[in-house]
Design a protein that fits this description.
Elements lengths: L2 H7 L3 H4 L14 H14 L1 E9 L5 E12 L5 E10 L1 H15 L9 H18 L2 E9 L2 H8 L1 H18 L5 E6 L2 E9 L2 H17 L2 E2 L3 E2 L3 E8 L6 H17 L5 E3 L7 H17 L3 E10 L5 E12 L3 E3 L5 H7 L2 H21 L6 E6 L1 H6 L2 H12 L6 E6 H5 L2 H13 L3 E7 L6 H6 L4 E4 L1 H4 L6 H16 L3 E4 L5 H9 L4 E2 L8 E2 H10 L1
Parallel strand pairs: 9-10, 12-14, 14-15, 15-16, 16-17, 17-18, 18-19
Antiparallel strand pairs: 1-2, 2-3, 4-6, 4-9, 5-6, 7-8, 11-12, 11-19, 11-20, 12-13
Helix pairs in contact: 6-7, 7-8, 12-14
This protein binds ligand C2E and magnesium ion (2 copies).
Amino acid sequence: MNRAFTEVTGYSESEVLGCNPRMLQSGRQDQDFYREMWDAIARDGRWQGELWNKRKDGRLVPESLTISAVRDAAGNVMHYVGVFSDITEIKRANELLEHQAHHDHLTGLPNRLLLEDRLLGAVLRAQREQTQVAVLFVDLDRFKNINDSLGHHVGDRVLCEVARRFRALTRESDTVARLGGDEFLIVMEGIADPAMVSRIADKILDDLRANPVSLEQEFFVGASIGISLFPRDGADPATLMKHADAAMYRAKERGRNAYEFFTSDLTQSSLARFRMETDLRHAIERDELRIYLQPQFSLKTGRRIGAEVLVRWQHPQQGLVPPGQFIPLAEESGLIVALGEWVQCAACLRWAEWAYAGLNPGVLSINVSRVEFRRGRIEDTVRNALAASSLPPELLELEITESAIMSQAEQSIEVLHHLRAMGIGLAIDDFGTGYSSLAYLKRLPLNKLKVDQSFVRDLPGDLEDCAIVRAVIALGHSLELKVIAEGVETADQRWFLTSEGCDEMQGYLRGRPMPADDFRRLVLEA
Ligand code: C2E
Ligand code: MG
Ligand code: MG
């Protein structure tokens, strides 16, 4: 023995000389362990491994140990030499790494990896014991609002507080995991009756309803819960999670702060929707979005003055999907921000390329969703798109719907002024369908009103629509704005608009939305 031996074991030389090393045994390894160890030494002359030994003070120490047999010239074993070191620190570091790999660092809850493991274990046990497992998919309501309006540090604290409550409201044997963002999953084993699960879901929702997430400022957080049961709703963890997720969507659709059990009809509606959302998430990465352009014309000269970008989604199975089918989904899920960034960048790059090649494409109009507009990041998005493409700002115009602007008029004014200061144009889209306050309209730094196509459709036969369009044109001009009409399909409609002094038009009569390459050809021909 040496000094390190004393340090690790606590025994001095006089205490151990002449004793059998067995005195260090902790009792944590069984007889088989030692038998195999001695078999290996006899066979190979050497053994290496980890084991627990007991110190003099009774504490157990994990050790890495090598034992070698020392033989004389005749090959007889003279003695054994054991070399060992204390691996407490290494073990602790390993455990920490292990923990980090399997837990969410913010809330300390199991992460998706560990959850899937636990759920699989639960399913196998339930199979053996003929019981049920419940999977609860919990998604906080409007959590994005909290993050956006109060900041991420508040959002993080809300998540921790909510995680703590979920833990407190469930049994020790249940698993509460965080999947990411504001999504949690609870796995409950040994369920005899679905009513048991309803009670837990009610308890969670009641708790959130009754108790504010009290920080400096008190506010309430709601949640939507979707529930699936093994074996009724799925035989494996992936299916159970997918179905609980679909049920959660149904709960959200039905007005939030509620729970729903999975039912087979969800496979049709919500699941298709869910699949669409997942697909949409990948659409940008997989380069499936397409820029379509619809030309706009001057009614005075008949000349092309620019085009509006109308995005399309080239879906691998469903073909070309129109924006009406995925923009609302993108708005709900927040994906619209990434989608809008993509559209702006892609369209500005293309447009700048043409402008610098001397093609004279005119002004590029891009739609901005109400969600993008409200998030307040629209300024950054535009700045980035202009910088990345070097597009002269006067060649860019944004279309923002009337309702998006008016639903928070005061903030809108500020954002619009910032955008105007960059030198880009601004148009109100779908004008006439919202409820514009004329007082605000006067203060908005706009260039253009876009008459909604619902008023154009029945021109010039419908007298009421004629009166509305006439009034909008007069209003626009009195505010020194250009007026453009969308959805112009017939020569009669164009005639009416021209005679009323409308400035510009867009519609099937002169050109449908077309792939960017087709539009380029159109510009080249001019
Ligand atoms: P919007 O901005 O009001 O676009 C006009 C819509 O009318 C387009 O539908 C266009 O194809 C259609 N249209 C054009 N001319 C005519 C016509 O003569 N007759 C009729 N009946 N329709 C005509 P689309 O392409 O399906 O787009 C629908 C909406 O989706 C757009 O309405 C816009 O709000 C939104 N959208 C499209 N692209 C984007 C985008 O990149 N970002 C955002 N946020 N929204 C977009
Ligand atoms: Mg538009
Ligand atoms: Mg419109």
